[in-house]
Amino acid sequence: MSEILAHYLIETPHELEKAISVIAGEQSSGTFVAVPGETPELTARHRAKIVTIEPLGFVETPSLPGAKLSKNEGSPIYRQARFTLSFPFENMGANLPTLFATVAGNLFELSDHSGLKLLDLDLPQEFADAYLGPQFGIEGTRKLSGVFGRPLIGTIVKPSVGLTPRATALLVKELCEAGIDFIKDDELMADSPHSPFSERVSAVMQVINDHAEKTGKKPMFAFNLTDDLEKMMRHHDTVLEAGGTCVMISLNSVGFPAADFLRRRSQLPIHGHRNGWGMFTRHPMLGIGFGAYQKLWRTIGVDHLHVNGLRNKFWEPDESVLASVSALRTPLHGGRFAMPVLSSGQTVHQPQDTFAKTGTVDVMYLAGGGVMAHPHGPGAGITALREAWEAATSGIPLETYAETHPELKAALGKYKA
Amino acid sequence: MSEILAHYLIETPHELEKAISVIAGEQSSGTFVAVPGETPELTARHRAKIVTIEPLGFVETPSLPGAKLSKNEGSPIYRQARFTLSFPFENMGANLPTLFATVAGNLFELSDHSGLKLLDLDLPQEFADAYLGPQFGIEGTRKLSGVFGRPLIGTIVKPSVGLTPRATALLVKELCEAGIDFIKDDELMADSPHSPFSERVSAVMQVINDHAEKTGKKPMFAFNLTDDLEKMMRHHDTVLEAGGTCVMISLNSVGFPAADFLRRRSQLPIHGHRNGWGMFTRHPMLGIGFGAYQKLWRTIGVDHLHVNGLRNKFWEPDESVLASVSALRTPLHGGRFAMPVLSSGQTVHQPQDTFAKTGTVDVMYLAGGGVMAHPHGPGAGITALREAWEAATSGIPLETYAETHPELKAALGKYKA
Description:
By secondary structure, chain A is α/β, with parallel strands linked by helices. Chain A folds into 2 domains: about 5-130, RuBisCO large subunit, N-terminal domain (Alpha-Beta Plaits); about 135-415, Ribulose bisphosphate carboxylase, large subunit, C-terminal domain (TIM Barrel, Alpha-Beta Barrel), CATH 3.20.20. In chain A, about 40% of the residues lie in helices and about 20% in strands. The first copy, chain A, contains 18 helices and 13 strands. In chain A, strands 5-6-7-8-9-11-12-13 form an 8-stranded parallel barrel, surrounded by 4 helices. A 5-stranded mixed beta sheet of chain A has the order 2-3-1-4-10. In chain A, helix 6 (about 165-175) runs parallel beside helix 7 and helix 12 packs parallel to helix 13 (about 320-330). Chain A starts with a strand and ends with a helix. The mean pLDDT of chain A is about 95. At the A-B interface, helix 2, helix 3, helix 8, helix 9 and helix 10 of A face helix 2, helix 3, helix 8, helix 9 and helix 10 of B.
């Protein structure tokens, strides 16, 4: 019978097996007291099973408040462990929102632990059959943007908030002329009184379509359509009709069913922004790891997924960023690849070790200041980023490559390593 | 001009005003470097403003990893404070998902703090105009269930997972005969291979409709329709057509746009289950407080909202539960009341202080073991809970009232205080 494997990190003052059994019971057929309908047959068929428990050590201070102690546990230690539960597929069927309620629901509230994090998930084929997965993914994104064999170099419209459609279009014109591959709305900007969605699409796409006609290169613009569902669908059509090639959603604001609804009707790649993600993952003993998170969104079918970048300006350490890229490059049900989006404080200094440590150019590489603040302007900024990736993929030291590439040389002088 | 006030808790190794300014900038018109379009006019119009900062003290160990220090901050202290930001309504318009990306987005990832929690929100009238709010609320729920002047006594179908539609219907029959007011699906049970949604509705509603015809009392059953959007809408219609009076969704699995889509079309009260909520709120310095959370869901229009109960079996302390009830009883844009749902380890022992501390009977009071494990059966269990509330509201000590109420007396003997 098909099963869902859910991999967790736990911290508990109790015996590991006891605390983990409570979680397995609460999230499947068991309850805290025996009830009449809980027959041995039902339990055998529906109870979540403990697959493995891997003890990791202990701490003396609980990571989270609220773990309740038994009377004989006066000064406890808090044991940490990884463990895996197997949930029968039959318990929820191919219902991704209810899967989420099962593997990431009430269990965070249980007083049997002082820390719980869902690290990863293994979903059975039934979920791949029920959900569409990415429609465009890496290949489709490359075809639409005409960029092959190297990362898409991109940027985010800044200021994030406040530009009129006309001012946005002027900035996009400058970026197009500078040779950009990809531009996105900020997640703070969707359909606001000072930049109504359809006016922005109209102004921006006129610039992009003109540029494409003149040069044959059509930069991809991800329009942020995060909104109520009907508006999202209308805005998708607006982008499509204007010749746009990408839409963006704030995943945690939109949620699974609305994203799935969009995916089933979308004719454009979906750029998945994970703002709010810090709330799920920043604490090491609470929430959800990217391993689980990205599988849910790839199952539904997001085409691009943000992962931060090396030495980013946010809190996230490099090993976490690299693990995220690696997770996205691991096939899910034989494929379903979403393109990793590297961003946050990226300049000419990160491509070298980003490529060395990930081994791929199938990424978007977004820079704000790293493009706009180049001493010779954004065009030189984009060229310098492309050159930094050329040096990285050719195995040529950055300084050596810079000797024959003036834009890269100027960038090395401007941006601190 | 309309504004959104967002109230936060922060912990930071930096000067409070400096760290809070970074958040205000990042989440509105500013960026970490000055960009060409960032004119003084744009900044004046769109930048989030710091309204208040209330220092709270400091700790020596950071609550979250990843706060980055300047070179001169060798052994820092981590200052804690409450603060309020004002965001111009113009920045996002009446777009609740993008509001969420603004007040609960990238800011959790900033390395300028070692802890950030969104505590509360004040939304301008524009949000009340754009979103429908609860359709039934407390009054509508009372009318549909025929229960007035006291809490709705309810329970959850257990085992959570594994019962067939027929077995569920048999349990519902027993509960109806026992005089229950409200029953709900478990959040783990929606539309599964062993209990297909429409079969369960059909079996359960036959029992409930028969019971209503015979007795005039129609218990409310909240059918969990958490699923992909089209299925949710189809299932809503199935419940309505079968004469059902309530639907339930797992809020964090469904998300804002899908819940709003349902609300705009629903002809039934929406029972809002907050499973997964522990992930948002259990850490004192990360995530979202119920104050903010419940306003977002009341703005969209959930009719019932879970809050745990006093001395619950989960991690949540009583003061947090009471603050949640109080938040739900505070008018939002003049009303928009959602009924608080008290549950988790509730028995005859909590009504007395629940009523004393909340001053209201406008709640659902759900008990599992507190109903089913009564020594004289579930009928006596329900009677005993009702009597415990009668004693509470009449100001009669529980033991005194039990002297003339045998079901309550038996319950007092069974359940530990």
